[in-house]
Amino acid sequence: MIFFSKMRHAMKRIILALCMIMIMIMIMTVAGFAAPQSATGAASKDLSPSAQSVAAARKAVSDKPMEYAGYNLLATALVRDAQETSDASFYSQAEDAVKKSLEMAPNNFNAEKIQASILVGEHDYPAALEAAKTLNKRVPDDVTVYGLLTDANVELGSYEDAEDSAQWMLNLRPGNLPALTRAAHLRELFGDAEGAYELMDLAYQSTPPTETAERAQILTQMGCLRLASGSTEAAERLFQQALTSFPGYPSALGNLAQVRITQKRYDEAVALLEQRDQAAPHAESLYDLAEALQLAGRDKEAKKTFADFETKSLAESLRKDNSNRQLVFYYADHAHQPAKALRVAQQEYAWRHDVYTLDAYAWALHVNGQDAEARKQIETALAVGIRDSRIFAHAGEIGLKLGDRAAAQSCLHEAVSLHAIGSDHAQLVLAQLSRPNSQR
Hints:
Elements: H1 7-31, H2 49-63, H3 68-85, H4 89-104, H5 109-121, H6 125-138, H7 143-156, H8 159-172, H9 177-189, H10 193-205, H11 212-228, H12 232-245, H13 250-262, H14 266-279, H15 283-295, H16 299-316, H17 324-334, H18 338-349, H19 355-367, H20 371-383, H21 389-401, H22 405-417, H23 423-433
Helix pairs in contact: 2-3, 3-4, 3-5, 4-5, 5-6, 5-7, 6-7, 7-8, 7-9, 8-9, 9-10, 10-11, 11-12, 11-13, 12-13, 13-14, 14-15, 15-16, 17-18, 17-19, 18-19, 19-20, 20-21, 21-22, 21-23, 22-23
């Protein structure tokens, strides 16, 4: 595998492309190109780029309702809106637009690509993978299809296949932005945080300032990389920058709250998470909020929020787009119902083996006393290369339960060295081990 061996060449191409973009912007300015118009003809300056795209696409459909291309544009814009706002209802609207497009032009390739991207957005990764494989056979050199293959394989834990697909993206179009961000995520999973950050920074520098949502997303991912490596101040700056680019961006709000938790500014974390929950009301948001409320000493509110989370999470538990990993940790660590934790973990493990699902499954096995199998699962996760303080901490506690003190201490020290979420707990466990006559 020559993963990113052509990166220098790609960077030259990106610089050239940026120059071309700047020239085009200058030409458009001189030519007096108008601002995007809404369906009523009014300028849409106050709308986000994705909302402008939706408005423009709806107008295209209205103007030429018998042309399938307009429905493809609308579906694409709606998928982007769903990604920006975390509002899954946009995926349903996109599905309707794709269905209309395919009724007019059966088997049109662009509509089927959008259909696969909707499956990814709805977390139906097995179906998305099969759809992308079918499309890849039809058109073997489509970069977008390789991106879909990468996404689905990453979420299912098929990392070698994901790496192959990402490499093809770079081979076909060196330095393209979708490939850079996907490659960065793989680098992170493989334990190369600095390499991941460099790729994300390159992607950010190559993203036009007008693409505010994309820039906010990239900045947030860069902040996550810094936070996971213990660079809290750098992470905070990046999350704040993301929120300046895209005010109220849910992912940036949630991750800035994690920074506040590491700083022990729990009430501020609660406020940020409440804001995120209002912007993107998902079960995962409630779980994070409940944990923050508990840390802030607001136990009554935490108890109610945990209860709300459980109700909402159970309602979606059988769907692919669920909060099952959080539900596992709720039952294992907060509700102290290990049998329920294991049942949910087994359900999720039955269809995906990514590192985070393996971690949740291992922890559920651990709290049920099945530590030999728990160790097997968490070692499989760590073998990918990921450096996550919580996973290291879990591996350390599982090792202790099995009596492997040396391996446990090694994992706990790794967790502490990252100075990230999970490090404090690992430090407490290590402190207990250092006490005379410790039986742990």
